[in-house]
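Retro notes
What went well: the complex prediction finally ran end to end.
Inputs used:
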Amino acid sequence: MRIATFNINGVKARLEGLADWLGTSAPDVALLQEIKSLDETFPRERFEDLGYGVKTHGQKGFNGVAILSRLPLEDVVRGLPGDPNDEQARWIEATAIGRKAVRVCCLYLPNGNPAPGEKYDYKLVWMKRLQERALELLAAEEPAVMAGDYNVIPQDEDAARPDAWREDALGRPETRAAFREILNLGFTDAFRARHQDSGHYSFWDYQRNAFDRNDGIRIDHLLLTPQAADLMSGCWIEAELRGRERPSDHTPVWIELDA
DNA sequence: ATGTCGGCATTGTGCCGA
């Protein structure tokens, strides 16, 4: 089972690029963030015609997450538990049925800028809620993946210019500590388990030719329960996509599971 | 401090969010 997480920055703007990508890279499961679309206006037919089942949790204009899958999906749940008043669409999960069943969770963690401030407070509270859901997933002792745009730069080696991010909501010490707290419950950061060197990023700003200069950050992560980590045979970043016409500012990050 | 995008409200262009 090959799973990709991809912040697409608007499904409408990315429709042709996405269809090309699904046709050539052909993920079994694609976890999409920032679809910026309501459920009812999401162009589901375009993806269904390519053989993908479509599950969305959308919102007008901002945020929004979706799962596209060539494998059957069961038990779809929308919204991160822990706050019934939270109206932001940032979480959807389902079970993908391959040779083995894998719980796949697609998340778009709040950006949190400007920090400090209300938006940063929301980010940290959201991360606490994520931690609660993460604990439940661990307790189930089954293969599960929490993947998406975490808006967290875990360590200095995950940024081309780490000093530029220390005061930013993506790189502040409190942000990193909250991420480590989740990781330390017993998850594997799939990419770091497979690659120890610096210079590998998943996001490059549209400004200042950041991609050409590889001035990026690694903020799109796949966190694996021990049972999922046991199945992992590979993890890679598909950076090439960022250099195409009209790209998202993020690029897909992949895992392959023996499942 | 700013550069660029996408989407919205609106029908020109400025604002928000990233």
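What we learned: Residues 9-10, 12-13, 34, 36, 60-62, 111, 113, 151, 205-209, 246, 248-249 of chain A lie near DNA strand B (CB under 10 Å from a C1').
What to try next: split runs per interface for comparison.
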